[in-house]
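Ticket #4471: structure export looks truncated?
Reporter: QA, pipeline team
Priority: medium

Steps to reproduce: submit the single chain below to the structure queue and open the exported record.
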Amino acid sequence: MENISGPTAFVEDTRTNRVVELLLAERHSLPLSIALHLVPGVLIVAVYLLVAQPLVRAIDYPSFLGWAIALVIVLYPLQFGLLWLGRRRTGRYSLRGVLGYLDKPVPRGRLVAMVAGLMAWFIVVSSVLTVLDTAVFEAFFTWLPFDDVGASATTYLEGNDRTVMIITLAASIPFTGFTLPLIEEYWFRGFLMPRLAHLGAWAPVLSTVLFSLYHLWSPWVFLSRVIFFFPGPWFVWKKQDLRLSIGMHAGTTLLMATGGTVALMLGVM
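Actual output as written to the record:
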């Protein structure tokens, strides 16, 4: 038995080391980078269709909750994977040595001002481009097999009891409002984009395009998402500070999720 387990364990450890070296390399090949961007999106859709959608149907809750569940099931292990890579590199669970743009070169005052501007851009431009989203959805994506699918994010909540909608939104705030966008920024901007640095100024462009494609559950928003999201990756690349896209992305989703929940509670929506 010892003669079998010893060599087998050695081979498995060697393969693990090769995977770690490939993932933590300073440069990712284009096919590898595309796969690492898009596979999480494929898994999220699969988990939603196979697990989350049947579950929320059974308990008669909005499909919005199903997407939140699918995102948690896929993205939380992704975050642990980053920490595991940190442990393989540094000996402890850490994002240091795994993520780029962590040196915080932008002064705090300027950072706050830039994040505020990025959030304003995100909210205003994404709102204006809902007309484009609706046109693209009605032209190409009405066939999607998702419950309550529609061009507006609110369609994932509509048609449900008001109390149920409030509970769904309030329970989702810590996840869809903050931690899930934070994990996305760690993965897409902190982990993947620095390994496209050899592309120069094309790195934030490709990062934005692939991140927009990753959202397979809302493909009709691809064009507008590229437009309203691009400044975040661009300034992260330009200023070498991951906090800029974290502030824009997680800050905006937290603000909108909290504001939407409060508005619903007050009967404004």
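Status: closed, not a bug. The export was complete when the record was re-opened. Leaving a note from the reviewer for reference: The radius of gyration is 20 Å.
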